[in-house]
């Protein structure tokens, strides 16, 4: 039924390779099927001006797609300016990751997560959040190792997955052929303990029932559980 031949509750293959760049305090290359995202974490011992002398840390994010991440070349946003989509996605990544951070324990410093999409096949924002947490965790581990942070400020893993209704059925982890034709499409951001951070969901040419929403939430929980297991394996 699915173009990929996967079962309705089956994820794409997941791999997370860590420490893939030389200079970043934390980095990983996350692959969710044919969606590949490079995530790096940079520690800055300063915070934005609006947080100065607050005693609180800050986590923010930037997101971008390489010109040939998709089947046709896109113009670099450095040349034309950021699109509304890019701004919306990087804000989503930042606030999602902050939801799993004890900002007092982090101390008055900023960690910037950069998510660069090398290859896109659906679910790039979800892969960015999931890989972004891994890069963040690796950077925090370095802070703890040198004693700049005493207790782990990452209170709970954060991961994200897409779910939707494709060909009348609830499916987990949409790739591009499904995402482009799904009647209902949603992104679910959750913690490792099953708490919801954000749901972005809309009907496109279709509607959905409360029962179907519950079914999609169940699928999302299954997907996030698998992603969190991969995150923990990558950072252990």
Automatic annotation (TrEMBL):
It is an enzyme of class 2 (transferase). CDD domains: RNase_PH_bact (cd11362). Pfam families: RNase_PH (PF01138), RNase_PH_C (PF03725). Homohexameric ring arranged as a trimer of dimers. Phosphate binds at residues 85, 123-125. InterPro entries: ExoRNase_PH_dom1 (IPR001247), ExoRNase_PH_dom2 (IPR015847), ExoRNase_PH_dom2_sf (IPR036345), PNPase/RNase_PH_dom_sf (IPR027408), Ribosomal_Su5_D2-typ_SF (IPR020568), RNase_PH (IPR050080), RNase_PH_bac-type (IPR002381), RNase_PH_CS (IPR018336). This is Ribonuclease PH. Phosphorolytic 3'-5' exoribonuclease that plays an important role in tRNA 3'-end maturation. Removes nucleotide residues following the 3'-CCA terminus of tRNAs; can also add nucleotides to the ends of RNA molecules by using nucleoside diphosphates as substrates, but this may not be physiologically important. Probably plays a role in initiation of 16S rRNA degradation (leading to ribosome degradation) during starvation. Its EC number is 2.7.7.56. The keyword tRNA-binding applies. Signal peptide: none annotated. It catalyses: tRNA(n+1) + phosphate = tRNA(n) + a ribonucleoside 5'-diphosphate. Belongs to the RNase PH family. HAMAP family: RNase_PH (MF_00564). Residues 10-139, 156-223 form the Exoribonuclease phosphorolytic domain. GO terms for molecular function: 3'-5'-RNA exonuclease activity; tRNA binding; tRNA nucleotidyltransferase activity. It comes from the Bacteria. GO terms for biological process: rRNA 3'-end processing; rRNA catabolic process; tRNA processing. Keywords: Nucleotidyltransferase, RNA-binding, rRNA processing, Transferase, tRNA processing, tRNA-binding. SUPFAM superfamilies: Ribonuclease PH domain 2-like (SSF55666), Ribosomal protein S5 domain 2-like (SSF54211).
């Amino acid at each position: 039924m699915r173009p990929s031949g996967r079962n309705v509750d089956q994820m794409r293959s997941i791999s997370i390779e860590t420490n893939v760049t030389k200079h970043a305090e934390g980095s990983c290359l996350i692959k969710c099927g044919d969606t590949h995202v490079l995530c790096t974490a940079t520690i800055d011992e300063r915070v934005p001006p609006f947080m100065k002398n607050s005693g609180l840390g800050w986590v923010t994010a930037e997101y971008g797609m390489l010109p040939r991440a998709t089947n046709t070349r896109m113009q670099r946003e450095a040349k034309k300016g950021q699109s509304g989509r890019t701004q919306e996605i990087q804000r989503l990544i930042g606030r999602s990751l902050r939801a799993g951070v004890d900002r007092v324990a982090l101390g008055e410093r900023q960690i910037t997560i950069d998510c660069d999409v090398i290859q896109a096949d659906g679910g790039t924002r979800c892969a960015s959040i999931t890989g972004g947490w891994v890069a963040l965790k690796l950077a925090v581990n370095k802070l703890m190792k040198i004693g700049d942070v005493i207790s782990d400020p990452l209170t709970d893993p954060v991961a994200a997955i897409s779910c939707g209704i494709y060909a009348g059925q609830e499916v987990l982890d949409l790739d591009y052929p499904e995402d482009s034709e799904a009647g209902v499409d949603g992104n679910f951001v959750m913690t490792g303990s099953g708490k919801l951070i954000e749901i972005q969901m809309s009907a496109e040419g279709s509607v959905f029932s409360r029962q179907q929403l519950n079914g999609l939430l169940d699928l999302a929980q299954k997907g996030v559980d698998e992603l969190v297991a991969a995150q923990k394996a990558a950072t252990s």
